Amino acid sequence: MVERANRPSALASTPALAPQPQVTFSDDNSRVTAVLPTGESVEVLLYGATVISWKSGDGTEKLWLSEAAKLDGTRAVRGGIPLVFPVFGTAPDHAQTAKLPQHGFARTSRWEFLGKSSSESAPGSAAADLSVKLDFGLSSANLDPSARALWPFQFGLIYTVYLNRDSLTTSLVVTNDDDKPFDCQVLLHTYLRVKDITAVEISGLAGASYVDKVDGAKTKTQSSALTITGETDRVYSPAGDAAVIVTEGGAKVFTVTRDNLGNVVVWNPWTDKAAGMADFAPNDGFKNMVCVEPGSVSGWQTLEPGDAFEGAQTITLSS
Ligand SMILES: O=P(O)(O)OC[C@H]1O[C@@H](O)[C@H](O)[C@@H](O)[C@@H]1O
């Protein structure tokens, strides 16, 4: 026995393989899940390329997903990170997008999974620093004919979900593949999970002007940190350069930074609106969520043929 233990075996001489991120598909191919060796995970539904779960290494869910959310492709997902494109809300006065449903068609279209890659964050860094990147695509070619009829432009969308140990980055690239210009808006409609909305403060928006959608679309200025005490639906424009920081009971929970996305929408439906949404459950789930939604939604991004627009958010967790 002793002799065997001391003898170098073929196994012992093989350098140990560093653990790799695991990327798997659900049996019905409706969703893809990536898990880092350290336990962090993200789950993306191909319907809408909707991120429906993001967990830290200890298994704690960071996004809010309604218990009544439809995940079968029959309606936009209530929760997670739905993608808003090419119109935010509805735009009855904007001829190109007037016929589109609320928040456009990206969140209700089935996307293609384009591939994964993983990398170390620094050369020679430990396996614990691995990250994983998932790419998804949607183009006019694979759009449902009914959606194509409502917005007859040739376009391409690439959505990248990038999971790191302490952050999630989601980035959208829009390209105009048509021979005429088109206008579009984009928004990353992120439902952040919180323990108690009454203890939440959102900072980083002070001094920014916003359209208050629950007060006759009046334009106001954010004077200090924002607390949520009732139905809230605000479009900050421009939102300023500062990161948006969400604290709970004074402790930092999320830091949201933006790349090339000038607006932030803050939304919480509160009691009545939540109760009025069939796919919002439980009814008091509004206490456990706040939407902080980076986007480009005031005015339009006009893309000339061949042009591209890219915008991204990074949500960093505080330990
Ligand atoms: O119910 P939907 O279409 O998912 O939209 C939810 C909310 O999305 C927010 O982005 C809008 O500012 C709100 O006005 C809207 O109510």
From TrEMBL:
Residue span of region Disordered: 1-24
Presence of keyword Disulfide bond = no
Q: Where is the active site?
A: 189, 293
Q: Which residues lie in Low complexity bias regions? A: 8-22
Supply one GO CC term from the record. Answer: cytoplasm
Q: Which UniProt keywords apply?
A: Isomerase
Q: Which GO terms describe its biological process?
A: carbohydrate metabolic process
**Catalysed reaction(s)?**
alpha-D-glucose 6-phosphate = beta-D-glucose 6-phosphate
One GO MF term on file is: glucose-6-phosphate 1-epimerase activity
Record-linked Pfam families:
Aldose_epim
Q: What does this protein do?
A: Catalyzes the interconversion between the alpha and beta anomers from at least three hexose 6-phosphate sugars (Glc6P, Gal6P, and Man6P).
Q: Which family does it belong to?
A: Belongs to the glucose-6-phosphate 1-epimerase family.
According to UniProt, the name of this protein is Glucose-6-phosphate 1-epimerase
The scientific name of the source species is: Lasiosphaeria hispida
